[in-house]
Known about the structure:
The chain has about 525 residues and is of the alpha/beta class. It has 3 domains: about 1-195, no CATH class; about 200-430, 3-Layer(aba) Sandwich (Rossmann fold), CATH 3.40.50.300; about 440-520, no CATH class. It is about 40% helix and about 15% strand. It is built from 18 helices and 14 strands. The protein has helices at about 15-35, 40, 45-55, 75-95, 175-195, 215-230, 250-265, 270-275, 290-305, 320-325, 340, 360-365, 385-395, 420, 440-450, 455-465, 470-475, 485-515, and strands spanning about 1-5, 60-65, 95-100, 110, 115-125, 130-140, 165-170, 200-205, 235, 280-285, 305-310, 330-335, 405-410, 430. Strands 9-8-11-12-13-10-14 form a 7-stranded mixed sheet. A 5-stranded antiparallel sheet has the order 1-2-7-6-5, sandwiched between helices. It is elongated and about 110 Å long. The termini are far apart. The model is unreliable at about 1-15, about 35-40, about 145-160, about 210-215, about 345-380 and about 520-530 (pLDDT under 50). The site of adenosine-5'-triphosphate has 15 residues, from helix 9 and helix 17. Adenosine-5'-triphosphate binds near residues 293, 294, 412, 471 and 475. One of its GO terms (biological process) is response to stress.
Amino acid sequence: xxxxxxxxxxxxxxxxxxxxxxxxxxxxxxxxxxxxxxxxxxxxxxxxxxxxxxxxxxxxxxxxxxxxxxxxxxxxxxxxxxxxxxxxxxxxxxxxxxxxxxxxxxxxxxxxxxxxxxxxxxxxxxxxxxxxxxxxxxxxxxxxxxxxxxxxxxxxxxxxxxxxxxxxxxxxxxxxxxxxxxxxxxxxxxxxxxxxxxxxxxxxxxxxxxxxxxxxxxxxxxxxxxxxxxxxxxxxxxxxxxxxxxxxxxxxxxxxxxxxxxxxxxxxxxxxxxxxxxxxxxxxxxxxxxxxxxxxxxxxxxxxxxxxxxxxxxxxxxxxxxxxxxxxxxxxxxxxxxxxxxxxxxxxxxxxxxxxxxxxxxxxxxxxxxxxxxxxxxxxxxxxxxxxxxxxxxxxxxxxxxxxxxxxxxxxxxxxxxxxxxxxxxxxxxxxxxxxxxxxxxxxxxxxxxxxxxxxxxxxxxxxxxxxxxxxxxxxxxxxxxxxxxxxxxxxxxxxxxxxxxxxxxxxxxxxxxxxxxxxxxxxxxxxxxx
Length: 531
Ligand SMILES: Nc1ncnc2c1ncn2[C@@H]1O[C@H](COP(=O)(O)OP(=O)(O)OP(=O)(O)O)[C@@H](O)[C@H]1O
Ligand SMILES: [Mg+2]
């Protein structure tokens, strides 16, 4: 932002006593018109004249906010915030508007075209109203010596567009109020509008390059160029329908998680006071189909955060891991799904040499081969990320970069994870997502069938603890399969599945007893009624 003192807008005119009197009179009349909410009736042209006349007796200052900072290709956050802040008043008061696409496919984000202006009223401490004016302008883009335009890669057509800017006019006597109170406040309000309007994103780091075809040195050089030039993340619009309302789980447990998220979201001051990075780790563990990924979506929707879905096997080195971290934004959730399968990271901390995990050499020495599969082929790739690198990513010096960030790890095998990975500070909240219990079933029945009670609930309550049925399976049984399926039919299908699962379990137990295997030797009976 640059502040300049504007000379009287009527420079050169003979500012005699009569003219000054008229100006003072006009200012008084104008302010009264504003108070009576008649400004819009009088019209925006009169508004501009009032400002010019008033400048005779009290000179104007201006603050200019450019779209691009320092002539570079980086868009100014302040410009975007002011634009967002002014969108409502522009839509209301301005005759010529510029429209851009918004989050909602049916809506448009409106802003003033060049030459338009809107006024804004600030409530001063002495209960008087102070009027300021925002005007929109633009200038042609700067040219390079060769006649080309600045910018490259990603700039494209954008480099040839006019550079827009907003200029705020206000009276000299309101300097303190505008600079110290008004401008910070509109930035905050603009940010809030942007959060509301913004399309949330789902990012992934899965590379589209076939690295195995590329020589190591070339690959390394290319990866540096890519990470310097553009984002290491690929993004799509995040549109997951799951919310906490439709996530079935024990209501008390759900409340506890929502409260925890609220405390985190509003915890900026608390984190600052205790000198803690504003981040929080969640570990979601439990068998497949218990809703871990679904919970991440519900969290993202609840908080309004972007989601960075990190595929560890696509990260080549600890250094790349750190670069990915640096390229994430605030108000985001970084998820590493099935962390136990992502890489052979379990129990390797001691084997990592000096273990600082901070350079590629270190990583190379301690490379762990990709292992683990969930039913079939192993995980491919040539990642050299070490456990140490991951530990530093989650709670090392660099993890304090940025703020308001959740890191969520999901796993089916919490017992396989290194204790250092899940210690408090890395994973602050551990949530066990388990087999469907009766409370979870009741919330699923409400969500799927809109029933709070039913004669078949008793059978479900009796059978559910006897077998291990995950919410994904219960949800499938409760989903109508044809237009004639009512609540009774869906519940009957679930009860049948439970009875069948119980019969299978009893048969397996009998078989084990016959074979001399005792129940204590068996960990769980997982029932997959759809197999
Ligand atoms: N608690 C739940 N409430 C509502 N739907 C659920 C719940 N749990 C699972 N589901 C449904 O079951 C399906 C599978 O859930 P999800 O993918 O979240 O399981 P997961 O625990 O992440 O499994 P995996 O360990 O295999 O990744 C989804 O379609 C989801 O909508
Ligand atoms: Mg999952």
